[in-house]
């Protein structure tokens, strides 16, 4: 049985190429010479020249090319299907389209129609799942602090973050030809076990920042007091008159022994809603440090080297000014924060 011949893919001539063909022909070059210059077939050059001599134009006729299987009404229906299920793939939409209309449409046609209508497949924004109580408490907290302006200058935001030696954020792309998927140079290795890294603690104020502390192993309430609060956090707060300390609701932060320590040291705490890491500006500082580590062309071989590089990048941040402007967009109970991180 003879092999099925693949359909050829043709690329339309641009207006510049059509004008160049006409100019070269008027200069006296042969069809073959012009085709060699523009990297096109001689028959294509002949058709362009014939259209120019017969009709005095170079543009394609309106309506030329293959006819669309779908009408404008069908395209609107397809857009509604895609907007109903935003995560549906083009193959899934093609199957749903075939069931709904009885007309077969390939996945590439689905993608082409959606692109023409402005719907492009993009990477989704990931977030922590929030329950109804989480949303209610976040909104309540926002309403309580919506009138804060200069008050944010007294807040000290703190948090822990972990930086790994190797990570994959889904943004890496490989340039390859068809059939080269399994080439060694087109494969990125992914570690299945726990990736070595460094866990750090830090705090930022309006015009100041604390020292970056390295945390080795698991952090519990006793270690949090002994290695973070006593040597760094409390002295940093005492150097800022009227400082208010912010921390998330992790278990080492909310233990009774930690609350007793804060009461003994007369540390004023900022109430913080659960599941709200996106509301703290220090998360953007971790993002800046992580991006700098990723841009470093020198590979980091150990956790100690990573820690040295982190301290260097934190020092380069200078005084990280985080201007917190809370703009309450009460749209679907969402809160938007504008952060300005000055490096």
Automatic annotation (TrEMBL):
Q: List each copy of the Transposase Tc1-like domain by range.
A: 75-147
Q: What is this protein called?
A: Transposable element Tc1 transposase
The record's subcellular location field reads: Nucleus
Boundaries of each Transposase IS30-like HTH domain copy? 11-48
Domain of life where this protein originates: Eukaryota
Sample GO molecular function, one term: DNA binding
Question: Taking the first listed entry, what is the main subcellular location of this protein, grouped into a coarse class?
Answer: nucleus
What are the record's GO terms for cellular component? nucleus
The residues the entry assigns to the signal sequence are none
Tell me where in this chain the Tc1-like transposase DDE domain is found: 154-306
Query: What are the GO BP annotations of this UniProt entry?
Result: DNA integration; DNA transposition
């Amino acid at each position: 049985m003879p092999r099925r011949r693949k359909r050829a893919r043709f690329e339309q001539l641009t207006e510049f190429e059509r004008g160049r063909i006409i100019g070269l022909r008027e200069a006296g070059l042969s069809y073959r010479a012009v085709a060699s210059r523009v990297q096109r077939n001689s028959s294509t050059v002949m058709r362009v020249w014939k259209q120019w001599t017969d009709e005095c134009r170079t543009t394609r006729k309106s309506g030329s090319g293959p006819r669309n299987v779908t009408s404008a009404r069908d395209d609107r229906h397809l857009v509604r299907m895609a907007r109903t299920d935003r995560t549906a793939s083009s193959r899934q939409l093609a199957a749903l389209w075939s069931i709904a209309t009885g007309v077969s449409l390939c996945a590439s046609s689905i993608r082409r129609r959606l692109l023409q209508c402005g719907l492009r497949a993009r990477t989704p924004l990931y977030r922590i799942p929030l329950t109804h109580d989480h949303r209610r408490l976040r909104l309540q907290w926002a309403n309580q602090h919506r009138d804060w302006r200069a008050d944010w200058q007294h807040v000290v935001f703190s948090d822990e973050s972990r930086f790994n030696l190797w990570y994959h954020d889904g943004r890496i792309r490989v340039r390859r030809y068809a059939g080269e998927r399994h080439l060694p140079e087109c494969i990125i290795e992914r570690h299945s076990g726990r990736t070595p890294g460094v866990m750090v603690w830090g705090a930022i104020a309006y015009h100041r920042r604390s020292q970056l502390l390295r945390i080795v192993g698991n952090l519990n309430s006793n270690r949090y007091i002994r290695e973070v609060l006593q040597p760094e956090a409390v002295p940093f707060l005492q150097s800022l008159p009227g400082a208010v300390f912010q921390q998330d609701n992790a278990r080492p932060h909310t233990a009774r022994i930690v609350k007793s320590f804060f009461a003994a040291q007369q540390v004023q705490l900022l109430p913080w809603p659960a599941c709200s890491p996106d509301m703290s500006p220090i998360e953007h500082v971790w993002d800046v440090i992580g991006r700098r580590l990723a841009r470093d062309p020198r590979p980091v071989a150990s956790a100690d080297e990573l820690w040295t590089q982190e301290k260097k990048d934190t020092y380069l941040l200078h005084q990280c000014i985080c201007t917190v402007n809370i703009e309450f967009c009460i749209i679907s109970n969402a809160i938007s924060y504008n952060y300005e991180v000055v490096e």
